[in-house]
Design brief:
Layout (H helix, E strand, L loop, with lengths): L3 H21 L8 H7 L11 H14 L8 E2 L8 H13 L6 H4 L1 H16 L6 E5 L2 H16 L3 H4 L6 E6 L4 H9 L7 E4 L9 H13 L3 E8 L11 H11 L2 E5 L24 E5 L11 E5 L4 H6 L29 H35 L5 E2 L7 E5 L5 H10 L4 E7 L2 E7 L7 H19 L18
Parallel strand pairs: 1-11, 3-4, 3-5, 5-6, 6-7
Antiparallel strand pairs: 2-8, 7-8, 9-10, 10-12, 11-12
Length: 473
């Protein structure tokens, strides 16, 4: 029988094996969903299997999945890893605390308070508070629920007529804002898109006009969601002008900085979020640019009290600390709360303020370097100067989505695509500081090669790419 110590030692060996596999196979073969159950033995058994055998199957399954922390992954707004934060995340699973009260989690509650206070201070929320959420979508949802309660006093107890309420976000805002409107009872149609300028930033004049029009029609504006770091272009909405509009209309200002919040860590990039200190709430995902393992999102509030007032419930069987500050579950949407603050605290301990600033500065330098390479390229085109950490490229003569599919199918690069003004482009997310000059050159060369071959017509390689070596699903 395998002992606990032997099992944990096996986990360490398998983790090291996974790390090595990312180097030897940075872009893995993509398995069709119709084949994986039988090919990888995923069916649930009637009788249990030995622990060591199960762990080996887990490792094999992970090795069959895309290498989303590997050296050729540029596809999402997260990538790479900090091994200290990763180790802390693994240990948090072993300890299995739930952070709803100090009685259950002890000093881990203080750890969460410390990282939230530091992030709030960086945003200019010196008298604020916060909560750790399982992802930016939940952080945005909490912000909408809180703003709804502040705008419509009876909504917490009685609900709302969604037809009479509006929230506002730019046409390039993350889809989670509209989903939050739906979940909070305002309806998807309760989210009004505000036009953007040529750089993909919300137009404050259009926002002002929309608020004026809706108030005149008897609607209740609930929240304006500005974006700091849009998903495709990495654009930052003009927060000072938007804050002026919100102040005139008395509307809650939320900033979705899930992607761009990390720019606050460096004096070189902090100006991108000028005016954020005037927001009422802020979403900041540590699992994106900061390199914390998924998931770890902070919802930060400029003023104290809103979290408990709008999200709190009484539960004598659970919240048994006399000091309300030691019952973080009363300021969260969840009851069970995984200890996602520990890995962020471990990262900060390992990197320090200076190391985190250097990480952001390295990423920004890489984004500028890649944009220089694209600008100087004889065939590829830079779609626009990168506002932050995403670089958008045109692929003349070939569809950008097909270029990305071909690179994945041939197991060369994992890179995504998106739309700018209706034009499909290759979107490169620069979030892994381990990428060096050679990696940037290799990426440009691979994109160019795929573009040129596709421009000549349908590639002869598609038949060869059928089966589990086919396009990334």
């Amino acid at each position: 029988m395998t002992t606990d110590a032997e099992l944990l030692a096996a986990v360490g060996r398998l983790a090291a094996r996974l790390l090595r596999s990312e180097g030897s196979e940075p872009v893995r073969a993509a398995w069709p969903a119709t084949e994986v159950e039988s090919a990888l033995g995923l069916a649930l058994p009637a009788q249990g299997r030995p622990a060591g055998e199960v762990l080996a199957s887990v490792a094999a399954l992970l090795e069959a999945a895309p290498a989303m922390a590997g050296p050729r992954f540029w596809n999402q707004l997260f990538g790479g890893r900090d091994l200290v934060a990763t180790a802390a995340d693994m240990l948090a699973s072993v300890a299995n605390h739930s952070l709803y009260t100090y009685r259950a989690a002890g000093p881990l509650v203080v750890v969460e308070q410390l990282v939230l206070a530091r992030m709030a201070a960086l945003a200019g929320f010196d008298a604020g508070e916060g909560t750790i959420c399982p992802g930016g979508s939940v952080s945005n949802l909490c912000a909408v629920v809180i703003a709804r309660g502040e705008a419509i006093a009876a909504s917490r107890e009685e609900g709302v007529d969604g037809r009479a309420c509006r929230i506002y976000a730019s046409a390039e805002a993350h889809y989670s804002v509209r989903k939050a409107a739906m979940t909070a009872g305002l309806g998807r149609n309760g989210c009004r898109d505000i036009p953007c300028d040529a750089q993909g930033r919300m137009d404050p004049t259009a926002l002002d006009a929309a608020l004026t029009e809706d108030r005149a029609a008897g609607l209740t504006p609930v929240l304006v969601a500005a974006t700091a770091g849009t998903t495709v272009r990495g654009a930052f909405d003009p927060l000072p002008a938007i804050a002026d509009v919100c102040a005139r209309h008395g509307v809650w200002l939320h900033v979705d900085a899930a992607f761009g919040g990390a720019m606050l860590l460096s004096a070189q990039t902090r100006g991108l979020l000028a005016g954020v200190e005037r927001a009422d709430s802020l979403t900041w995902d540590a699992h994106k640019v900061m390199g914390v393992p998924l998931l770890c999102s902070a919802l930060l509030m400029r003023r104290r009290g809103h979290l408990a007032a709008q999200l709190g419930e009484t539960a004598d069987y659970l919240f048994q600390c006399d000091d309300a500050e030691l019952n973080p579950g009363t300021r969260a949407l969840q009851c069970g709360r995984r200890d996602d603050a520990l890995k962020l605290w471990a990262l900060w301990q390992h990197q320090g303020d200076a190391g985190l600033a250097a990480r952001v500065e390295t990423l920004r330098a890489q984004a500028l370097r890649l944009s220089d390479l694209a600008s100087a390229h004889p065939r590829l085109q830079l779609a626009e100067a990168p506002p932050s950490l995403t670089v958008c490229l045109r692929t003349p003569g070939a569809d950008a989505a097909a270029v990305c599919d071909l690179l994945a199918a041939e197991r060369r690069q994992l890179v995504g695509h998106g739309l700018i003004g209706g034009e499909r482009i290759v979107r490169v997310a620069i979030v892994d500081p381990s990428h060096d000059e050679a990696a940037l050159h290799a990426l440009i060369n691979d994109i160019d090669d795929a573009t040129q071959r596709l421009a000549l017509g349908p590639p002869q390689t598609w038949a060869r790419l059928a089966g589990h070596s086919g396009g990334l699903s």
